[in-house]
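re the bet — no i am not wrong, look at it urself. input seq straight from the record:
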Amino acid sequence: MTQSKQTTTSNSGYGGFSFGSIIEPITGKEWRPEELTARAARRVGQLSSLGVTRGARVLIHYGNCGEFFADLLAVWGLGACAIPVDPRLTEFEIERLAELTKPVLSIWQSGAPANVEARLRAVGTATIDTCVTDTASCDGLGWYYDDPALILFTSGTTGDPKGVVHTHRSLHAQWRALTAALAGIRFRRTLCLLPTHFGHGLICNCLFPWLSGNTLYILPPFRPDAVSRLGQLLDEHAISFMSSVPTIWRLALKLSRAPNRGSLDRVFCGSAPLSAHLWREVQRWTGARLSNTYGITETASWLAGSAGGESTPKDGLVGKPWGGVIRVLDSGDTQRPIDEFARAGPGEEGHVWVRTPALMQGYYQRDDLTRKVVRDGWFCTGDIGVVDEHGALSLRGREREEINKGGMKIHPADVDSVIEQFEGVTDVCTFAREDEFLGEDVGVALVIERDHTCLRHDLFNWTRERLASHKVPTRWYVLEEIPRTSRGKVNRQEVARHCWTLEPVSFPGGGLHRET
């Protein structure tokens, strides 16, 4: 297929889209479209001088501010691929990402720490900060629709790489599908308080409304002080739309007064299961209609939802697809043609498969992992669900092993791969544990040669140095043996159930404690 080229200039926006303003309520900064365009054009010149060309990869270590979006446009303007990075990653994880992706450049908000900069330099990656030193602007060289635009790592910062690659074509397909499906929703003053390094926050909550000409209000992600002022911020800025995750709503309902000016028209909630009870509470607090959304990074996030917002709150209810097709089948085996599977009838549980023009190109340099979830253009989500007689999807559970900690996905194998390297650990199994506030948190069972205080202390520090803080287990269980199936495999859910009957151990200096 012939690739179509899009030339990016300082006056054309991005791919036929004309972006709006960006406002940072906490800092008071306002970025008008012409200011963002001018900054992006100057950054194009600077990045080009540092070797960024078509096909190059660039790590961006910060987000949730106007500079981030200007840098993103500059990277795309040179035909390069952006890799937004979770700012919480450790030196170990950053070095791992750089070794995997071989980026030519790493962009930081206030400069890279000296030790991290040295590690990046060792793998051939230059570093710069957000300060624009070039005064001359450059129009850029343009990009092709089938070029990679984003790599979003859902795992692989410590274990097997799992970077979701989206092209400009898949991103544009997503935004056009959402434009058609959500035509009646007022996005003109959109608020985002989600991180811009994963799909929900970046692709849908930010880029979709912003590239449609709407004003984007951007907050630091998951900041309790910002969430405690949520009602006030909604009123002060006459916010008409926002999307978030259940964890933020649980916090807002406890800490913030409700908005009272009635500007908020619609609320989306996704990335984690939403209960009927919380659904009703958010609607009551906001005075707005709530749409429960279903999205996966591999499908450029928002895939389906109750777009009309009139659905009766119900545990697990998602709604109908937005620009794609959903099937519930009797198998999740991607080694067989999808037409061989029986389709579940109304109310019958099965494996959720989706087909969408916004499907990822694949996992970065991992065709083996891609083949495990994609077959003939269909993506097997790993979720178990039912479709009712009206075609609305409800989720019943999942087969995926990831831990959903307040909407942030953590892959147990990533944690395993760090802990098992510690001398003295002979076996390890990380699993999801229930958490009243976050939904799920990280637990781990391990077998160690000698269980004593010093070893626990050293192990905890080892883990904390190599894993981002949200991935560090909060409950540790020392076992004589980790349960396995008759085939010698570990079932993480079974291990979790076994550990629930035990007392977790305390790790000195780790702030860990016994459950009460």
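see?? DSSP finds 14 helices and 28 strands in the chain. told u. also The longest helix spans residues 33-49. so pay up
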